[in-house]
Request: fold
Amino acid sequence: MLTIYNLHAKIEGRDILQGVNLVVPPGEIHAIMGPNGSGKSTLAHVLFGHPSYQVTDGTITFNGTDVQKMKPDARARLGMFLAFQRPVEVPGITAAHLLRAASQAKGDTPTSLKEFEDGLDAAFDRLHLDRAFATRSFNEGFSGGERKKMEVLAAVTLAPRLLVLDELDSGLDIDALRTVAEEVKRFVEEDASRSVLLITHYNRILKYLTPDVVHIFQSGVIERSGGAELAEHIEEHGYASA
Amino acid sequence: MPVRDTTTLAESATRYNFHMPENYAFTAEPGLTENVVCEMSAMKDEPKWMLDFRLSALRIYERKPMQPWGADLSDLDFDSIRYYIRPQDRQGKTWEDIPSEIKTTFDRLGIPQAEQKFLAGVGAQYESEVVYHSLHEKLRAQGVVFLDMDGGVREYPDLVREYFGKIIPPTDNKFAALNSAVWSGGSFVYVPKGVHVDLPLQAYFRINAQNVGQFERTLIIADEGSFVHYVEGCTAVSYSTDALHSAVVEIMVKKGARVRYTTVQNWSKNVYNLVTKRAHAYEEATMEWVDGNLGSKVTMKYPSVYLLGEGARGEVLSLAFAGNGQHQDAGGKMVHIAPHTSSLIVSKSVSQDAGRTSYRGLLRVLPKAHHVKSHVQCDALLLDEASRSDTYPTMKIENRDSSVGHEATVSKIGDEQMFYLQSRGLDETTAKALIVNGFIEPIVKEIPMEYATELNRLIQMNMEGSVG
Reply:
């Protein structure tokens, strides 16, 4: 499904990614763990074609399609989704409006507005978010935790095949973390071909969302990969031991 | 906000720009002379006082220098303009009454359909004359008057004479003088005491021919405790030569009455739109201008409210969109004359593709106006480096016992916002349009749904024309 080969990327002349190799097969949950400044968020941005980063070498393919030259929206339409670490505000546009537009842009089978809104309502309920958020200006005045929940809500509404979660746990208290993790789990289990790439500094989210593979990311490369137990090892001994 | 409907944009793009044959009853030679004024007045069979008014205004116009501020009007060739074009000799009471090419025009603009669905009355102006007029029977029975201005002069001479040119005298500015000399068409509205007109009255202005000058003149009188919402729309056929639209709109809002005046201006990009709009608001009255300017080559328009009675309230919500070759010089004026009056001006402007917007506003509090509350907010959004936005706010506060606020922001669309929306699957144009729609939403939400949808579509259309 997602195959990254020898990926090098830089921003403002600084080399950040220095030969990343990663394969995320369908139906699997992978975690990328790494200390601050290791370049793991850069990886998320590069995966989605952020214009500030330049890819200098390597390839990214998604379901056999080379996505490297594609604009972010084309990648999204292939079924890639990035849940942002710091989601932006879009003043004056409601979540319902934005998600409906995104769903139409993706070319999803058209549903009636009523069906669409019912689907949103159900997702709001599962995420313990007030339904009123659907008709408020997108993310404006929302807390960090509410924004993160909105990201997951957007993800499950747009139903991507690959869900990349960038530091999902930051800004979430323990109850909210459990709620969003359960929602991601439900989403993955609903369709066996969906996969998740979790990018995280801490392993606390991994207690609720067990990864099939854990990758340790350091200095712009994946240094080591292993099973879920690798995350526990990091928790106990720190990244220096990896 | 409604989700955009399925009308294709290509369809919208050709929607306004179509020309119809000109089988007109009368077309004046280009240029403005006393003869033109006398001729049109005679054709309208006007009383002597109106001809005198016109001729005295013409002299004021000729004497008055062009204002030294505002948009660049140096390319406007007054001598090539045809100041009066009479499309037909009588006004239609039904759509079947009017010539088929004109009826087709308004059909294509969707006016009869809108009339059936959500309007209390319609006036349709084509070149210099109002060719069709209607008003719900129920409102007529309640004493509501909705006529074209020429009809107002004929049927309500006393009322018209009392107010015509009193709120905006010909001496006000050069273009008010010009309009006063050659005015034709526009609306005359009278709402009796306590009557609430629940559905909007709409006037639609269409320019079909080349080098037209359209000088509509509107007078609205809202008697005590009444309410009316007047909506105007305007479109024109696009030509390489310039056209001039110069209107005067005077509104009298009496004690406890409320008038809302909504404009969706979408002139083609060869039209100079130079308009004077002013309301007098008396005790506890409310005047609201909702002013949307998308089209035209140059617009200069600053709807104003003179707050003359205690507790009066004025509002201007101004929206401007300027693309390549356009300058929208818009804003609002509030003059607080009586105590305990309040006002709000909100201006949102968007410029793209070397387009230019200017906010120009006046807030004036006179010495006797104590306990005034006023707030002015102007926000500009620039879609690219080549675009430009300026603000020219003037404040003259002569009573210390007033609370006045002013905020202005200029922003650009951020890379992170664009990346976020694109990563949701929206292409660049759609993402930009979404941000723009959100930016103007505080104003669009004040506009009736039918027009709001149209407005959003127009903006999207303008943006698609620009982003390769």
